[in-house]
Amino acid sequence: MAQVSTNQLVGVNAQLSDGVRALQIQGHKSSRSDDTANPSGVLLCHTSCSLGSTPLELYLSNVSDFMNQNPTEVVTLIIANNDNIDVNDWASAFQKNGLDQIAYKPPSDTVTKDQWPTLQEMIDSKQRLVVFMDYKSDLSRVNYIIPEFKNVWENPYDQTSGTFNCTPDRYDGDTSQMMYLINHYRDNVDSIAGQEIKLPARDKLNVTNSVDSIMRDANSCAKQYNSYPTFVLVDFYNVGNGSVFAATSGMNNVAYEKKGVTPVPTSTSGAFRLDPTVYTAWMSVLTIGVSALLSALLM
């Protein structure tokens, strides 16, 4: 069942190594109160942790290792706080891994898209991790977990049509002054145990993750909002062998240097095979901070 519910096939180490620079995670409160390896009590999974999960501390330790080994890289982390977990619980895991020390600390809870520092300024100031959270952030208590919807708006998610729309769906403020994220992944409507659910449309990935599909979506949004999206959220980013990176390079008007990505693991039957270290915790991974955290910050 974990393979059915997952949205990525490889773990965060491979994602970052391949060039993904924006990650999305979804947190849920653990039922255990005595887990010394997970003192925050936050488990990462999609919807239900009964299908598999990873402790937040473990996930962030991998992000921390990458950041320490790559001192000129900027990474964005977008948190879906579905259980409305207290912001201090999240912060404890960041502190445990030292990520609070390199997280960007904005002057206020709302930063307009033209006020963001450049990537070089973030690198020079040693504040290279940008952390957004959809609900329950509070800068007066944790000064680096930034309210997402005051700074980034999103279009609708869980779309089932290949014709994506760019209508602002979640936001809190003037969208004309915000960066924005497009959910460029497609779901199929399915039924499990008599309950209707939406699952990743794996059968359409070669089309959905193609340069043509992503650019068609991004160009449509850019025409409406006079700039490309800041973030592009995709499922199974490595299906297409780098096509998602080629598309976001195009949005940034830079040449794409093809280096290949982590191969899609397959079973002997040719079907996708989930990396056994992934579980559903790694599932919602944003790609690619390139498109607007870069384009917006370099303006």
Automatic annotation (TrEMBL):
GO terms for biological process: lipid metabolic process. InterPro entries: PI-PLC_domain (IPR051057), PLC-like_Pdiesterase_TIM-brl (IPR017946). One of its GO terms (molecular function) is phosphoric diester hydrolase activity. The chain crosses the membrane at residues 279-298. It holds the Pfam family PI-PLC_X. Gene3D superfamilies: Phosphatidylinositol (PI) phosphodiesterase. Keywords: Membrane, Transmembrane, Transmembrane helix. This is Plc-like phosphodiesterase. It comes from Malassezia pachydermatis.
